[in-house]
Amino acid sequence: xxxxxVAVLSMKRGTHAAARAIAxxxxxxxxxxxxxxxxxxxxxxxDASLIEQVCAWRARNMRMFLTQFASSADSTRNYLERLAIxxxxxxxxIIEGPDSVALGHIGLIELSRTSAEIDNVMRGDAPVPPxxxxxxxxxxLQWCFDALRLDYCTIRVLSYNSHAIDLYIRLGFSPRGKIxxxxxxxxxxITHKPCAPQQSNVDYxxxxxxxxxxxxxTQQQRLPSPLS
Length: 228
Prior knowledge:
6 helices
C-alpha cells in the first residue's frame, strides 16, 4: 500500500454514518451545499435499495462502458465488494443529496501517489440540481489535487459519448490520445480491448483525456470549490 496516498486508505468505512462524516461536500457557485460525495465501504453491501439503484443506472447506460453485460443485483453487489471496496487502488463515491437520496456515483481507479483515473461517472434517475455532475467532478478533482496532491488525473470515454467529452473539456481536461478497440462478444459479455489501428473491428474508439494539477492551487488557477 506504500504507493497509495495515506488519505485514501481509511476512506472505506463500515457504516453509512461514518462514511457521511468524511464525505466531500459539493457546493454550487454561490457556495450553497447541493450534494456530498460519500465513499463506498462495506456499509453499501447491506443497502439493498442502493444496490438496485446502482444496478439500474448501469443497465440504463451500459453502452457507455467498455465492458457490457446483463446487470443484476448480484453482479452489482459482487462489483462493489470485490472491486469498489476490495481493490485498494479504487474509490467509489455515491453522490447524495442533502436528504441522503442517491443521485449518482463517481469513482477513481488506478490510484497511486502521483495519479488516478476518473471512472464510473453516472447520474441517477432522481431529479438533480443544475450542473450536478460538473460540480461533483470539479469537487473530486479538487480533492485529488489539493488533498491527495496528485500530479494529474486521466479519464477514458468512448468516442460516441460526445456529451461526456464536452463536459470533461469544460472541466479543463485536454485530449491525450486515441485508443483503438477490438470488440469481442462471448456468452453475452461484451469487452473492448486496446489494439493496433489496423486490428480494430469497430468504427469508434476510446478517447483518453488528462488534466494536470494547477501549478499553484492557492491562486486563481485553483479549482473553485472549497475543501470541506
